[in-house]
Amino acid sequence: MNHTQPPARTPAHRVHRCLVVGLTTAIAAITAALGCQARNTPSDSSSPSSPSSFSPAAPPSKAPHSERRGASDKADGAVPEDTTVFDDDIPAVANLDRDVLTALRRAARNARGHGITLYVNSGWRSAEYQRLLLRGAVATYGSEAEAARWVATAETSPHVSGEAVDIGRSDATAWLSEHGAAYGLCQIYRNEPWHYELRPEAIDHGCPRMYADPTRDPRMRR
User: Fold this and answer.
1) Does the residue 190 lie in any domain?
2) Which residue from 45, 117, 119, 128 could staple onto 49, CB 3.0 to 4.6 Å apart?
3) pTM assigned to the model
4) Is 132 domain-assigned?
């Protein structure tokens, strides 16, 4: 598009604020979409599914909470409010890969000494739950291609295999970003600061370079 005059520069902090507001709006839209599906899906009570990775767009310091739909859905991976990495009675935590959970709990014990609690917004999910999340993301973003930047398929999601966790609350994600490598816990995607997976080699060599988003991850192309 041509302009007769050069546009005025927009200060960087205003651009950042606009981006955060836009992403926050996207979260609200996904929450509404998933809530509507949860109420209207006939099989919801027996095989719920609903975010991470869930992983829809969210402010950079804040993991989404839209998957928290009710106690009846916990068996498929829904996470009640204030769930921590020590809550063995929550399937999303208890069904995590043993090595992932061990590393998380080691990190959480040390974080606690600094006044930080590692809350879990999402962990293990059933395949059906993951499919519902993906359908909600497609409805929100308008295409499978855009949804794939935030939500993986049931066949490729590391949440379904219990190998990924979404950490809640900005103080926890900030602490883990700084100290997670010492426990082999690494942020994998730049657009998902809440999403962590186990990379044991990070203890000695640091975390690998992050992918811009899941569409850049070769594992998502199976």
Assistant:
1) yes
2) 128
3) 0.71
4) yes
> Which structure tokens are listed for 107?
């990190």
Distance of CA 128 to the CA centre of its chain: 17
Residue 5 falls inside a structural domain:
no
More confident residue, 130 or 20: 130
Q: Could you tell me which residues come within 8 angstroms of residue 79 by beta carbon, excluding any fewer than 6 positions away?
A: 67, 68, 90, 92, 120, 121, 122, 123
Element (H, E) at 121: strand 119-122
Residue-range definition of the domain harbouring residue 78: 12-221
pLDDT digits (tens, 9 = 90+) for 86-118: 999 999 999 999 999 999 999 999 999 999 999
Q: Provide the 8-state DSSP code for 209.
A: P
pLDDT of residue 64: 52
Can you say how many angstroms the Cα of residue 21 is from the centroid of all Cα atoms in its chain? 18
Q: Model confidence at 222, in pLDDT bands (50, 70, 90)? A: confident
**Among all chains, which residue has been given the structure tokens 């293990």?**
124
Residue 7 lies in a domain: no
CATH number of domain containing 130: 3.30.1380.10
Question: Is-contact 208 181, C-beta < 8 A?
Answer: no
